[in-house]
Amino acid sequence: MILDIPDSFGYGPEYITIINTRRATYQIQVEYASSNGLDSPVNCKVHLYVRGGELPQSPYRHTFQPDDVGGDPWEVTEVTYYP
Fold first, then answer.
1. Which residues contact 59 (CB under 8 A, 6 or more apart)?
2. What are phi and psi of 10, to 5 degrees?
3. Is residue 3's pLDDT more than 70?
4. Phi, psi torsion values for 79, nearest 5 degrees
5. For the purposes of burial, counting CB atoms within 10 Å of the CB of 69, is it exposed (0-12), middle (13-18) or buried (19 or more)?
6. How far does Cα 8 stand from its chain's mean position?
7. How far is CA 45 from the centre of its chain?
8. pLDDT tens digits, residue range 55-70?
């Protein structure tokens, strides 16, 4: 897995690419690592693409609260991939 574009000091986007995938079920999670000093809720949106096409359920949306920093990750979904 490669974090193509990390954006730890702003509002994103961040892109992650999985190469050399194998037949498996992948758990997609998002961790709220830092509030960057914000004391208000933060909206998060995840778009998932497989073989260049966006999954029909995408985008997934979640709101992190300020006290979620460093807590349990948001479990977005699972994707089963068949190469």
1. 45, 46, 47
2. -150, -150
3. no
4. -125, 125
5. middle
6. 13
7. 8
8. 889 999 999 998 888 8
Q: How do residues 11-30 score in pLDDT, each as one tens digit?
A: 677 778 887 888 999 999 98
Provide the pLDDT confidence category of residue 74 given band limits of 50, 70 and 90: very high
Residues 6+ apart with CB under 8 A from 74: 29, 30, 31, 32, 44, 62, 64
β-strands 53-54, 49-50: how paired? antiparallel
3-class DSSP state of 43: strand
Number of domains in the chain: 1
Distance CA 19, CA 17 (A): 6
Domain ranges, residue 76: 2-81
